[in-house]
Design brief:
alpha/beta, Rossmann fold, nine-stranded mixed beta sheet
Length: 480
């Protein structure tokens, strides 16, 4: 049995700020349980303690002495859907309302990485593979190979770092390496831990992990270029032979229109026409839009940021509103975008609605009720929303970048293939061109639109295929 420890700051159902939580929740469940024994270790945040504490089992107590860090922590266990989650309880760093964005994040992340190693030692639990996720856990390979390398069982662990979004790297003052992580200065001096005279957690992980993965094949290529590499492209090129792109999936049990209690009417590919119609009408009623099953209903379920293409969508909105459409937006983001969407709602009552915030039930209702989901992202490592929307028969309109390019097959009307729409250059003109094309298909070629919806619902968006690729990589890293 191959023991794999997922090291992540978040996971459903406990805490989520983005797609990372979906992956850490779904992937362990999809791995072959006859070959892989998977555990997940994460911090015990305030919200987790409030909801799950009573059902947890106390396992052990550890001490973390590292530079200026002198803290204790308790280790708890919780079984969720057959997967054991290990929680590190420390009120100094984790008993807070939020997950990220604190002035002492460098100390918090450092403590977490060191606590994971100390936990393994205290519990005499040594996984064959540590699968670290994003920069919050990226220092762990260096700790095992430098600070704790005298312990043979620690030194023998293999490490896979998954980059979920390279835009976030964990860059701090170089003193973090010494004041919190207690590395010897020589590893900074020789360049192993240095990045432009700073400490960069992601860079350290890329250098010291045995393999590096990211969440789509296209994104794996993109991040090796100056345009998308966020200053780490040269280092990623250097690790190119050990860099893999494996596209994400979704938990198809949680996102299943045939069993979803959060939508108005459950449906499958056999009765999707009636199902989509009823969910659309229910969504229109709920949001205060004019009820019309025939009117094209488009929307976004997204963070409203430059990365997600909110600026392109806004620059195209007046052209779109001249057509026979309704628009629904769900999300938060940059204040200027939130203000613009709120003004549009005020000016276009019963045609445009903006829900500022995040509502899980409303998100499900939109995936089920929309006709078209727009994702005109500047870059998108993988993307989750387009996978969910296809599962529910809502066609995605995406820019051809990262995982969007890998998962959405644009309509080919000559071969009657495709499961959505896509455009290339990041421009308002190209977005509008493809939107107008989709608009024409919806109103003038209804049979073709139905074909696309069926294709979308038939698309394999599960984690099963991705899990098989990870399993192959786990076997491969153990022979490295």
């Amino acid at each position: 049995m191959i023991k794999v420890l997922f090291v992540s700051f978040e996971s459903l159902p406990f805490v989520k700020t983005g797609g990372l939580a979906d992956v850490v929740y779904a992937l362990p469940k999809a791995l072959d349980k006859n070959e892989f024994e998977v555990r997940v270790v994460m911090p015990m945040f305030k919200s987790i303690k409030e909801k799950y504490y009573e059902g947890m089992k106390y396992l052990d107590h550890i001490y973390v002495h590292s530079g200026f860090i002198n803290e204790e922590a308790n280790i708890y266990s919780y079984i969720n859907e057959g997967i054991e989650y290990l929680f590190i309880e420390n009120d100094t760093y984790f008993n807070r309302d939020g997950v990220y964005g604190y002035a002492d994040d460098a100390a918090r992340f450092s403590f977490y990485n060191i606590a994971v190693v100390e936990m393994m030692i205290k519990m005499d639990y040594y996984p064959d593979i540590c699968h670290e996720h994003d920069y919050h856990a990226a220092v762990l390979p260096a700790l095992c190979k430098i600070r704790y390398n005298a312990i043979e069982k620690i030194r023998s662990i293999r490490h896979i770092l998954t980059i979920h979004n390279l835009a976030y790297q964990g860059e701090y003052d170089k003193q973090v390496l010494f004041d919190y992580l207690a590395f010897d200065y020589k590893y900074y001096e020789n360049g192993d831990l240095r990045f432009n005279d700073y400490c960069n957690f992601m860079k350290i992980g890329i250098v010291f992990a045995d393999f590096v993965t990211t969440v789509s094949k296209t994104y794996a290529k993109e991040i090796q270029t100056p345009e998308f590499g966020n200053r780490l492209d040269v280092i990623l090129q250097y690790r190119g032979k050990d860099l893999y792109g494996i596209v994400n999936g979704i938990d198809v049990d949680s996102f299943n229109p045939a069993k979803d209690d959060q939508i108005e009417k459950k449906y499958s590919i056999r009765n999707y026409l009636a199902g989509k119609r009823e969910n659309k009408l229910a969504l229109q009623r709920q949001l205060g839009l004019a009820e019309s099953a025939e009117t094209m209903l488009i929307g976004m379920v997204s963070r409203l940021t430059f990365q997600k293409g909110a600026d392109i969508f806004l620059s195209a909105i007046q052209d779109i509103l001249h057509k026979d459409v309704q628009i629904a937006i769900l999300g938060t983001g940059e204040s200027k975008h939130e203000y613009s969407f709120k003004m549009l709602e005020n000016e276009n009552r019963h045609r445009f609605v903006y829900y500022c915030g995040y509502n899980e039930k409303l998100a499900h209702e939109m995936y089920a009720g929309l006709d078209l989901l727009c994702m005109p992202s500047l870059f998108e490592p993988c993307g989750i929303s387009q996978l969910i929307s296809m599962r529910y028969g809502t066609l995605p309109l995406v820019r051809e970048t990262g995982g969007l390019k890998d998962t959405v097959d644009p309509l080919n009307e000559y071969e009657n293939t495709g499961n959505g729409f896509s455009f290339g250059p990041y421009s308002t003109e190209d977005f509008l061109r493809v939107f107008n094309y989709a608009y024409t298909q919806y109103y003038e070629y209804p049979e073709r639109w139905k074909m696309l919806v069926k294709n979308a619902m038939k698309t394999d968006v599960s984690f099963e295929r991705s899990a098989r690729e990870y399993e192959e990589l786990y076997r491969k890293v153990l022979t490295k």
